[in-house]
What we know:
Blueprint: H1 4-17, E1 22-31, E2 41-45, E3 50-52, H2 58-67, E4 83-87, H3 91-96, E5 104-111, H4 115-126, E6 131-136, E7 142-146, E8 154-155, E9 159-164, E10 168-173, H5 177-188, E11 191-196, H6 200-203, E12 212-214, H7 218-225, E13 231-235, H8 240-251, E14 257-260, H9 264-277, E15 288-289, H10 301-316, H11 327-337
Parallel strand pairs: 10-11, 10-13, 11-12, 13-14, 14-15
Antiparallel strand pairs: 1-2, 1-5, 2-3, 4-5, 6-7, 6-9, 8-9
Amino acid sequence: xxxxxxxxxxxxxxxxxxxxxxxxxxxxxxxxxxxxxxxxxxxxxxxxxxxxxxxxxxxxxxxxxxxxxxxxxxxxxxxxxxxxxxxxxxxxxxxxxxxxxxxxxxxxxxxxxxxxxxxxxxxxxxxxxxxxxxxxxxxxxxxxxxxxxxxxxxxxxxxxxxxxxxxxxxxxxxxxxxxxxxxxxxxxxxxxxxxxxxxxxxxxxxxxxxxxxxxxxxxxxxxxxxxxxxxxxxxxxxxxxxxxxxxxxxxxxxxxxxxxxxxxxxxxxxxxxxxxxxxxxxxxxxxxxxxxxxxxxxxxxxxxxxxxxxxxxxxxxxxxxxxxxxxxxxxxxxxxxxxxxxxxxx
Length: 346
């Protein structure tokens, strides 16, 4: 499943290239609780088609009614410079639009964005580049600039700068059953997923649409995959011959998440192997996660995949997980309470 921002921009580009009038809506400020974060975008075509969202649905309905029906009360213009709109100012309005208690959000409405600029932006994103899109508030003129790192939306009296990046990517080592569940969840979360497994008995039965399957050796795959700061690498084979060198290769990259499935004992053994035989140090292995996942009492492959995906998303979003969700910590506590327990799953 494609990154939502790219999907929105692609639809908007197609509408504008077809000569249709369209509106780009950006969440620029929020107060209190809000359904969508600052920087979220949606596109609205004059015929009523919509892509993306800025709330739970009621604000979208209001914008459609005001933009797609020029004769409607409080109809929005079809052209002109960008303008702001605020929703949820009063408790009554917040309730009407389905906003959480006290929630208010401010939107920037951009009328008929330039088709050529949208095409250039989508082309850059398809090529894997991170881009700043700068909108001049006085007249709607847009400039595009490459960016070296992600940035939050910036708004001053003259410019709105929103940063758009290529899809987040996930590389999974191993094409087993758990990989199928994890790959499916990752796609729903907007990740482009690649699976690597040189073992014929696993790759031959892979059945998740939209996932690229490679049969090259995992460490070579990591090198060609070239993980960046929007990439994660997850090893799920339980086979040191496949996992270890791939993880070492990944640790040389800026991937935001690198981890391997396995029990506490197996993960400790992996670290000892890497230090003793592969020249690593504790400091060099500091970014290697394992046992991966958050503790949710999971037992089955889909449940374990949920726990792993949750941890990946938490790291991606910069969330510090409490210690009582750390698999190793919880299992250690359980073992102290019940020394006979041998369960090692997240």
